[in-house]
């Protein structure tokens, strides 16, 4: 049981030598009971979500993750059009920045966000379940190591290569044209690099002074 758009999973199965045509694919019902009651043999899930429910029900399961075969797609992405970028560049950049700041705040203040969800949106999930999601998401994102919002062009090219293997993109597809980067963002990245170089150079100079005194 998986979503029809689960290309990452289809690429994973194909890389493991599984004939996709031999599988009986079932439309996803978003109900773990389908798996718990063995109406399906496997299902696509979020490891930040359904695994909590499986553990709570003492359901035995085994996780198969595409990353084990070197397939590691970006999860949540923002999309716009070239026309929108040209006509409303400030709106596009402001939306991107607001999204990133929202993620940063959520990762730094999980209890406050959980209170907000339970009081203003939905109590479908328990506080414990939402806390579990926050912890798992933090493990996946690792904002202490990777800046939220950062994307690597090489990784995107690898994703394009995976799509090409599925026959969904030409083998020579170049991702450069679909990646957005604002002038302000590029400037900030360059400024950080400049300060880093200055800092390292200053430290080397200080050590040299101390060494030769």
Describe this structure in words.
This protein is mainly α and 213 residues long. Helices cover 54% and strands 0% of the residues. The chain is built from nine helices and no strands. It has helices at residues 7-15, 33-36, 50-56, 82-87, 89-108, 110-120, 127-141, 153-165, 183-212. The longest helix is centred in the last third of the chain and has 30 residues, at 183-212. The termini are far apart. The mean pLDDT is 85.
Descriptive labels:
mainly alpha, globular, 54% helix, 213 residues
In short:
The chain is built from nine helices and no strands.
Blueprint (SSEs and pairs):
Elements: H1 7-15, H2 33-36, H3 50-56, H4 82-87, H5 89-108, H6 110-120, H7 127-141, H8 153-165, H9 183-212
User: Count the helices. How many?
Assistant: 9
In percent, how much strand structure appears in the residues?
Answer: under 5%
The rounded Rg comes to: 22 Å
Shape: globular
Say how many strands there are: 0
In sequence order, what are the helices and strands, one letter per element? HHHHHHHHH
Distance linking N and C termini:
71 Å
